[in-house]
Design brief:
Elements lengths: L3 E4 L5 E2 L1 H10 L6 E4 H4 L6 E2 H9 L27 H11 L1 H9 L3 H24 L5 H24 L5 H25 L6 H4 L7 E3 L3 H19 L8 H24 L4 E3 H7 L11
Helix pairs in contact: 4-6, 4-7, 5-6, 5-7, 7-8, 7-10, 8-11, 10-11
């Protein structure tokens, strides 16, 4: 038969044996009830004051944070990519297939006109971006991409017409392929989380900024000079094969040099998220009078 024993638990430490003795003596005044059939099987002593003290140190459960107090996720940085300089750059890229078609079909007058258009738009879009503050990270990607598209088109078609040597074309195209693969990798590693397929191709989310090296700018100018001169050479009234051959050797050297500069240069590109982290915080405001 179950017996309830009432114990005074103000400052008394009781073990299991003492509880069994008190259970035979009957009920007494106190503040705690012990079920002798289950609790007395514990051989460890039970101290009421210690138990109360341990309970008093349990931290209270805090209410969950409301929607206003919860930390908000940083918004994704976006920029305006629908600018007139970017439109001019895209038109230069769109003209490349027509340029290639005109060279393959020996229409060098049309090819020369398209080369003039490409050169003018390259100058105008850079001027407008600087003059009217329409620069964008996408523009820093599209402008060299347009140059590479134009260069690839001219290299392939002129090599097909035996106007430039095939080994030189292989050097130029090989460098551009390696740089393109590196650009895809940098875009993936610098893209802020989450890294999804749609966000990867959303160029309104800037992640890295391309910074051409000095030799790369010189190489691009020399390549365009070589390809442009070679394109208009069939319609010139005089022979320029000797100067073209010397220029081909120079372009081969600068192409290899510029490709190596991107491997060893530290400022070939800039990850925007890292630049934001390294930016020093503004100084605290001074004491007000």
């Amino acid at each position: 038969m179950t017996t309830l024993v009432w114990l005074h638990a103000r400052s008394l430490c009781i073990n299991a044996n003492s509880l069994r003795g008190l259970a035979r003596r009957g009920p007494a005044l106190g503040y705690a009830a012990v079920y002798t059939g289950r609790v007395l099987c514990n051989p460890r002593p039970f101290c009421a004051n210690a138990a109360l003290r341990s309970i008093s140190h349990i931290p209270p459960k805090l209410p969950p944070k409301s929607g206003h107090d919860a930390p908000e996720k940083a918004p994704t940085i976006r920029e305006n990519i629908y600018t007139f300089p970017n439109l001019l750059t895209l038109s230069r890229i769109a003209a490349c297939p027509v340029l290639g078609w005109s060279i393959v079909h020996d229409d060098f007058y049309l090819a020369t006109g398209l080369l003039v258009y490409a050169g003018l738009t390259d100058l105008v879009d850079g001027y407008l971006a600087r003059r009217y503050n329409m620069s964008s990270v996408l523009g820093t990607i599209l402008d060299p991409a347009a140059d590479k598209t134009l260069m690839t088109t001219l290299t392939v078609t002129l090599a097909m017409k035996d106007l430039i040597p095939v080994p030189l074309a292989a050097i130029i195209l090989g460098r551009d392929v390696l740089l393109s693969l590196a650009a895809f990798y940098i875009r993936y590693t610098s893209l802020p989380s989450p890294k999804t397929f749609s966000r990867y191709w959303d160029f309104s989310i800037p992640s890295a900024e391309v910074r051409p090296t000095g030799i790369s700018k010189v190489n691009t100018a020399l390549q365009l000079l070589l390809m442009g001169t070679t394109t208009i050479s069939p319609i010139l009234p005089f022979e320029i094969s000797a100067p073209l051959q010397a220029l081909q050797w120079i372009v081969a050297g600068t192409t290899i040099w510029s490709g190596a500069s991107y491997v060893f240069a530290k400022d070939g590109f800039r990850v925007l998220s890292s630049a934001a982290k390294n930016r020093s915080p503004p100084p605290p405001p001074g004491p007000q009078p």
